[in-house]
Amino acid sequence: MPDIADPVPPRKQSRDARRVQVIEATIETLAERGYARTTVTDVARRAGISHGLVLFHFDSKEGLLTETLRSLAAEYRDNWQAALAAAEPSPQAQLAALLDADFNPAICTPARLATWCAFWGEAQSRPLYQAECGAKDDDYIQRLEAICAALIAADGSILHPARVARVLRVTTEGVWLDMMTMAAPYPLPEARATVITAAAAFFPRHFVASA
């Protein structure tokens, strides 16, 4: 057996690269125009390719938006799972890694935040969001709740794990919304510090709020 994998055929490599290019153009267009006003023509123009070539890869606007959401969801899931895998196994380290992951500069960009909000905010996109992201959201929530439960047990506290996890999650989502809507958004370190302040309120033995 050879030591290295067989090279990817140039045609497939080009097709994959083109799909990534179009998905990135879709993210930028959704961030600028919103869900309802985004068109295939807008995306094609931003990607620098023809309308027909976008349809060749994605069939329709619905197909394009579905693949874009799938790509974002996979990117988000891979990011937090990699952060947990790289962290120490203690509940404190696992929670810190999970909270930090949401402010990774690779996924926490203005365009990506605005695109997530576009999918969350438009009523017509909600069935698509639930179909593509509902199970992934549940997986994240269950992991967050389990980590919070371990910290609560270690402290001998009577806190409710699901509620603590919910507060931390909605704090993160609120910070994301701030970063997208404020005229002068605070930087990533301040965003992270805000969420750590919430964690410190529940787990003062394990987290310290920044001054």
Q: Keywords for this structure?
A:
211 residues; Tetracycline Repressor, domain 2; mainly alpha; single chain; 9 helices; disordered N terminus
Oligomeric state of this protein: single chain
Characterize the biggest β-sheet: none
Structural class, please? Answer: mainly alpha
* CATH architecture grouping: Orthogonal Bundle
The residue-averaged pLDDT reads 90
Tally of helical segments? 9
Q: Output the CATH homologous superfamily.
A: Tetracycline Repressor, domain 2
**Which consecutive residue ranges, at least 5 long each, have pLDDT under 50?**
1-13
Strand content: under 5%
Radius of gyration: 20 Å
Question: Per CATH, what is the topology?
Answer: Tetracycline Repressor, domain 2
Report the CATH C-level class. Mainly Alpha
Question: What's the structural domain tally?
Answer: 1
Distance between the termini: 57 Å
Residue share in helices? over 70%
Task: Please provide a brief summary of the model.
This protein has 211 residues and is mainly α. The chain contains 9 helices and no strands.
Description:
Helices cover 73% and strands 0% of the residues. It has 211 residues and is mainly alpha-helical.
